Amino acid sequence: MNHGANANNYKMTVTAALAGVLFFFSGTAFAASAEQENLNSLLQSIAEKVAEISAIAENPDLSPKEKELEETRVRKEVLFLAFDLTLLEDEGLENKLNSLSDLNDDQGKIRENLLVIFTENENAYAEMRKRLDEAVTLEEVKSLANDFKVWRSAVYNPKVEKVVSFILIFRQKQILSVAWQRLDKIKSDLEKLKNAGLINGEETDGLLKGAMLNLETAQELNRRAEEALSSILAEELDPLKAPSTGLEKEESPASPRELVEQSLESTRSAYGNFIEIAMLVKEKLNLK
Amino acid sequence: MERLLTKLKSIEPNKEFKERSRALILNSPQSGISIGIFNRLLNSAQFSAAFSLAAIFIFLIIGGLSMLSQRILSPALLSSLDPENLTEEAASLDFQIQLSQAEYYEESAEKVEIALNETSGELKNLENREEELNKLLNEITL
Fold it and tell me: Which of A94, A283, B67, B117 has the highest CB neighbour count under 10 A?
C-alpha cells in the first residue's frame, strides 16, 4: 500500500516536473519570439540602409555634393539603427539573466558579475550617442562608425558571448534534470515489465546503460562549461587570483559555449537511446 | 370405575391456568407453512450468494492475469515508453536551446560588423567586399 502510494507520488512528481519545465520553457519561448522578431526586424532595416549606401554611390543622377549629403544621412541612419539594435540586445540579455531562478550561490555570483557588464555598457552608449547626435560631416559619421565597430568587437561581443553561454549552461542544467527524471522513469517501467516476464531485458539493458553514460557525459560537460566560464570571469575581475582549472594546459581549451553545445549533443544522444528502448519494448509487447 | 370416569370428565382447568397457557402458546414461535417459505427463501439466497462468490473467484482466477497485464501496461507506463512522446519531448527540449538565441547573437555580431564596416568606409578597402555585403544583404530577402 505504502509502495503503491510512493509509486503514485513518484509518477505525479515526474509528471509535474516535466509539465513545469515545459511550461516554463513555453512561457520563455513566447516572450523570446516577440523579442526575436524585433531584433530580426532591426537587423533587416540595417541591411536595407546599407544597400541604400551602395545605391547612392552608384547613382549617376546625383552630384558629388548631393552624394555626400545623402551618404552622410543614410550612414547616420545605419548607426542609429545599429545603436538601437545593440540596446535592444543588451536589454533582452539583461532581462533573461534576471529571469533565471533557483540559482545556487556560485551561479548567483556569476550572474552578478555578468550583470555588471550592462552597467559598464551604459557609459559607452552615452558617449557614442552624444557623438552620433553631434556628427554632421561624412568623416565624423565614418569615424564614429569605425569606433562603434571596434568597441563592439573588442568589448561588446565578448561580453555577449559570456552572457549567452551562462544562459545556455543554466538552461542545459534544467534540460538535464528533465532527462535524468525520464531515465529513472524508463528504468522503473522496464523493471516492472521484466518482473512481469514481458521482456527479458537483455537488449534494453545495453541501451539503458548507453543513455546513462550519455547523460553522465552531458552532466560533466555542463560542469566543465560552468567552470570554464567562472574561470574566465574570475580572470577578468582579478587576473592574479584566477583559479587554476587545468584547462590552461590544453592548447586551445574549449570555450564554455562549445562545451555546453557538446553537452547538449550528449543529451540528444541519450534521448536517442530512450527512443530505441521504447521501440524495442513496443516490438516485444506487440503494441501498435 | 364408571363413576370415576364421569368425575374426571367434569374436571376443568382453572381460569388462571387457562390464561397462562394461552399466553404461552401465543408467544411461542409459529411453525407451519410460513416457516417453510422463509426457509426456502433463505436457502435460495444462500445458494445465490455461494454461486456469486464462486463466479467472482472464477472471474478473479481467469481475469487476474489479464488485469495484471493491463495494470502493467497502463497508459502512464506506455507514455513513458512511447517513441512518439519521447521524440516530442526531445524536440521540445532541443527547441528551447534554439530559442536561447545563441545563434542569433553570433550572426548579428557578424552582420552588424559588416554594416559598420560599410558605414565607416572600411569595407571598400577589403577584397571580399561583395561577399561580405552579400552576407548582410541576404538579410533583406529573408
Answer: B117
Cell of A277: 528502448
> Which of A106-120, A221-235, B39-53 is the least confident region?
B39-53
B105 and B139 share a domain? yes
Question: In terms of domains, do B69 and B106 share one?
Answer: no
| Chain B residues within 8 A of A185 when measuring between CB atoms | 80
Tell me the pLDDT tens digit for each residue of B21-61.
Answer: 888 877 776 655 555 676 777 777 777 777 777 777 666 66
With respect to residue B92, please indicate whether it lies within any of the assigned structural domains.
no
Number of structural domains (chain B) is 2
Classify residue B91: in a domain, yes or no: no
- What span, in angstroms and rounded, lies between the C-alpha atoms of B40 and A253? 94
Is pLDDT of A133 > 70? yes
Compute the distance between CA of residue B77 and CA of residue B17 in angstroms, rounded to an integer: 82
Residue with cell 555598457: A121
Whole-prediction pTM: 0.68
- Residue B141 included in any domain: yes
Interface test with A, best of B116, B134, B139 (most A CBs within 10 A): B116
> Does residue A237 belong to the interface with chain B, where contact is any CB pair within 8 Å?
no
User: Alpha carbon of A42 to those of A36, A94, A288: distances in Å?
Assistant: 10, 19, 50
Which residue range forms the structural domain that includes residue B116? 99-142
C-alpha cell, B75: 497508459
**B18 domain-assigned:** no
Segment (H or E) for A94? helix A64-99
